[in-house]
Design a protein that fits this description.
Blueprint: E1 6-7, H1 17-23, H2 33-50, E2 56-61, H3 64-75, E3 81-86, H4 89-100, E4 104-109, H5 118-127, E5 132-136, E6 138-139, E7 144-145, H6 148-157, E8 161-165, H7 177-180, E9 184-188, E10 199-204, H8 206-213, H9 226-238, H10 249-265, H11 267-287, E11 304-308, H12 315-324, E12 327-328, E13 330-331, E14 341-345, H13 352-368, H14 377-389
Parallel strand pairs: 1-12, 3-4, 3-5, 5-8, 8-9
Antiparallel strand pairs: 2-10, 6-7, 9-10, 11-14, 13-14
Bound molecules: 4'-deoxy-4'-aminopyridoxal-5'-phosphate (PMP).
């Protein structure tokens, strides 16, 4: 293990060396040929990563919340109705954003650890004529993964657009935006893409762009208006840069490198690596007698694991003990389970060795807090999952 603890929170994540080098390269003009190449590559690779060959990518300076706001501001108008499928804090955030834009948000909210049933979505779509359905692919406050494809198909049958929040999934969970019928998918740079924090990525389908072009009213945010950014994104891809707002040149160069690593790894292999990391992490925690927040294995995310603290153990004691043993993990986030849960991110460039160090550090931390564990249990359970897959 290196002398620095592994950063195993659900973003920002540790960066591969080549991504760190790209982000620290000397400043360049946003119009320089080198930067134009980087930006063009980042846009093209974003389309590949999202599985959206006909989609229009946008890469903006800002965090994942800006990506959510950009999606909503361009597609939602005052008075529109929106159906929000919420599996945690970030679903609720979409409702707040939609309401800020003057929309009426109908929220289907799952208990922490559960998904919203398909039948409940179908019934809500019968009851309300909505323009947009929002889905959080993986909610980082619960570790629950939704199945977006059937929801998008249902939304389309009801004439509604689907927005997918992929901030905690893109790059670590399979995504086929176009064949799943997702109109707008979005993510941020600092999680499964293993790039530095600071970029918001969106891919709009032709249907989403069409809905935007038929708006009755102007987009209520000047910065995120696609009308300002579309010519810029098209220009960079075509090798003819333009200016609307200064791009985050260092971050875009780092993102281009991280996306190139993802494409080089092979998207199927990358998703399978994440799937195994998730399964192994859950197995290791189960072996330590720790229970997992998602109530069924098939809705547990591959990118992070949310788990309940064993009885009598406090976050304030566990987190520093795990850190001292070599891994930085996160506390709970969902308001209903905030003080009773912890979260381990295992996305981006995380490999089996890093996850093994991490579960060993969690075991060590739990032991230091008085949880009865037999040393080596977590590593053994992890290895069993990896061996089975070999
Ligand atoms: N959506 C999800 C699913 C997230 O996990 C996060 C960040 N944890 C966000 C949106 C917001 O992203 P950011 O913190 O980058 O604004």
């Amino acid at each position: 293990m290196s002398d620095r603890p592994h950063l195993m929170i659900p973003g920002p994540v540790d960066l591969p060396d080549s991504v760190r080098a790209a982000s620290g390269a000397p400043a360049r003009s946003h119009l320089s040929p080198t930067f134009v190449d980087s930006f063009g590559d980042a846009l093209r690779r974003t389309r590949v990563l999202f599985g959206a060959p006909s989609g229009q990518p946008f890469i903006l300076a800002g965090s994942g919340t800006l990506a959510m706001e950009a999606a909503a501001a361009n597609l939602i108008e005052t008075g529109d109705a929106v159906l929000v499928i919420s599996t945690g804090v970030f679903g609720d955030r979409f409702a707040a954003i939609a309401e800020r834009l003057g929309a009426e948000a109908h929220v289907l909210r799952a208990e922490a650890g559960e998904t919203v049933s398909f039948d409940a979505v179908a019934a809500a779509l019968e009851r309300h004529a909505v323009k947009v359905v929002t889905v959080t692919h993986v909610d980082t406050s619960t570790g629950v993964r939704c199945d977006p494809a059937p929801i998008a198909a249902l939304a389309r049958d009801h004439g509604a657009l689907t927005i997918l929040d992929g901030v905690c999934s893109v790059g670590g969970e399979p995504l086929a935006q176009e064949s799943w019928g997702i109109d707008l998918a979005l993510t941020a740079s600092q999680k499964a893409l293993a790039a530095p924090a600071g970029l918001a990525l969106l891919v709009a389908s032709p249907e989403a762009l069409d809905a935007w072009s038929r708006r009755r009213t102007p987009v209520r945010s000047y910065y995120v208006d696609w009308g300002n950014w579309l010519p810029i994104m098209e220009g960079y891809e075509a090798g003819t840069p333009g200016y609307f707002g200064t791009p985050a040149v260092g971050l875009v160069a780092a993102l281009a490198e991280s996306l190139s690593l993802a494409v080089e790894e092979g998207l199927d292999r990358r998703m399978e690596r994440h799937r195994l990391l998730g399964a192994a992490c859950r197995a290791a925690l189960h072996a330590l007698d720790v229970s997992i927040v998602p109530v069924r294995e098939e809705i547990a995310a591959s990118t992070l694991t949310c788990a309940f603290l064993p009885e009598g153990i406090e976050l304030g004691a566990l987190l520093p003990a795990v850190r001292a043993a070599g891994a930085v993990i996160a506390g709970g986030l969902h308001p209903k389970i905030r003080t009773r849960s912890f979260r381990i991110g295992h996305m981006g460039a995380v490999d089996r060795g890093i996850l093994a160090d991490t579960v060993a550090a969690v075991e060590e931390g739990l032991a230091a807090c008085g949880h009865p564990v037999r040393r080596g249990t977590a590593r053994r359970a992890l290895a069993e999952v990896f061996d089975e897959a070999a």
